[in-house]
Design a protein that fits this description.
The protein has 14 helices and 13 strands. The chain has about 375 residues and is an alpha/beta fold. It folds into 2 domains: about 180 residues, Rossmann fold (3-Layer(aba) Sandwich), CATH 3.40.50.2000; about 160 residues, Rossmann fold (3-Layer(aba) Sandwich). The strands form 2 sheets. It has a 7-stranded mixed β-sheet, with helices on both faces. A 6-stranded parallel β-sheet has the order 3-2-1-4-5-6, with helices on both faces. Helix 4 links the parallel strand 4 and strand 5. It is globular. The mean pLDDT is about 95.
């Protein structure tokens, strides 16, 4: 009897779960694959939306839950959390003995996964490598690419960069970003009934009326400036009084606490303003919120990936996504309320953009799962030029 290949997917942030949900489905449905889902870090924490509840509701039961976030959201705690993640994930991988470990993107949790798998001689598959951005994410992403054995970049430019970095071309597969799978296969209509379960706080929200979506995460390379940076965005949106604003809580990167405090202070000082604040959405409902916004503002990569596929107008604030490949739907603004305000008004007036398939066509999850099933193991990695 042929043994099923064990694929261990590590999900450690709410955003990355949305990026791999359809991949998890494809692995789960393949009779020749065994899904080992490991969840950890902010996925388990209430204040970051406790995405573990969403994951379970979607029918995925983790084989391991790992707590490895050191409280504080500073540069020091971020480094310590990475180290603790290596320790905890090493134990999990040793117990589970997967044939391949899958990790996503460029976060500190992703680095911990990559180091642990590499030192245990477990082949590592990396999604979304080869991309150019600002922030510390770019250095982390490229470091993970050098540890990875199998690559699933999201664009052709990213694939070419990986080749130039010395990665073996025959182990680089551009199937697009699995986040596009949700957009291609789900109903993205929105109404008050669908969204009522999220509650949130702030002014009453009418999902049938125009709204701006704001998602702004910390920029670790300008640690300590998050309060000022997000204040400029909030002040800019407050000038657009006739449109509702949906504000999503930031991720767990160093500097998160500064942004969270600024949002809470703004909320207290502008209780009558048309702002509503949420901790988290399921991947499908986040896609709904994104799809139906008149404009997206902040520094989330979803504005670039999912936004280009949907044609949603977006304003990228600051340099967190500096240099990243993007579609026509994106314009940029600095950390200045006036500049952000003008950019948002311009995008609202422009309206929807044409859909672009820069990051794939919505079939990445199935294709990645098939490659994980069929690729030859073990892997001996060599640098090539």
């Amino acid at each position: 009897m042929i043994r099923r290949r064990k694929i261990c997917v590590v999900v450690a942030s709410r955003a990355n779960y949305g990026r791999v949900k359809y991949l998890l489905k494809a692995i789960q449905n393949d009779p020749m694959l065994e899904l080992q889902l490991v969840v950890g870090a902010s996925v388990l924490l209430y204040r970051f939306g406790k995405a573990i509840d969403v994951i379970r509701n979607d029918g995925f039961e983790p084989v391991r839950k790992i707590y490895y976030v050191v409280e504080g959201e500073t540069l020091t705690t971020q480094a310590k959390s990475t180290g603790l993640g290596i320790v905890e994930l090493s134990t999990a991988f040793e117990d589970l003995a997967p044939d391949i470990v899958v990790t996503v993107a460029d976060r500190f949790e992703t680095m911990a996964t990559a180091v642990a798998a590499t030192y245990l001689n477990i082949p590592l598959a990396h999604l979304q490598g080869g991309e150019i951005t600002g922030n510390i994410d770019e250095r982390v992403r490229h470091a993970i690419s050098k540890l990875a054995d199998i690559h699933f970049p999201s664009t052709e430019q990213s694939r070419e960069r990986l080749i130039r970095m010395g990665e073996q071309p025959e182990r680089i597969f551009n199937f697009g970003c699995p986040a596009m799978d949700i957009l291609a296969h789900e109903d993205l209509s929105i109404d008050d009934t669908i969204m009522a379960r999220y509650g949130g706080v702030g002014a009453p929200m009418a999902w049938s009326k125009p709204y701006v979506l704001m998602v702004q995460h910390p920029v670790t390379t300008s640690y300590g400036e998050g309060h000022r940076q997000v204040q400029q965005t909030l002040d800019a949106l407050n000038r657009i009084g006739h449109v509702q604003k949906v504000v999503l809580w930031p991720n767990i990167d160093a500097g998160s606490d500064d942004i969270s405090k600024c949002i809470r202070v703004f909320r207290e000082n502008h209780r009558e303003a048309p702002f509503h604040y949420y901790r988290n959405f399921s991947p499908e409902d986040y896609a709904r919120v994104l799809n139906n916004a008149v404009c997206c503002v902040g520094n989330s990569s979803s504005f670039i990936r999912e936004g280009s596929f949907l044609g949603v107008p977006a304003v990228l604030v600051g340099d967190r996504q500096e240099g990243r490949e993007h579609g026509q739907n994106v314009i940029s603004a600095g950390y200045d309320a006036g500049e952000i305000h003008r950019a948002v008004v311009r995008q609202i007036d422009h309206g929807r953009y044409a859909s672009e398939k820069l990051f794939g066509f919505g079939n990445a999850g199935q294709r990645i799962a098939e490659k994980l099933r069929d690729i030859e193991l073990p892997i001996k990695k060599r640098m090539t030029y």
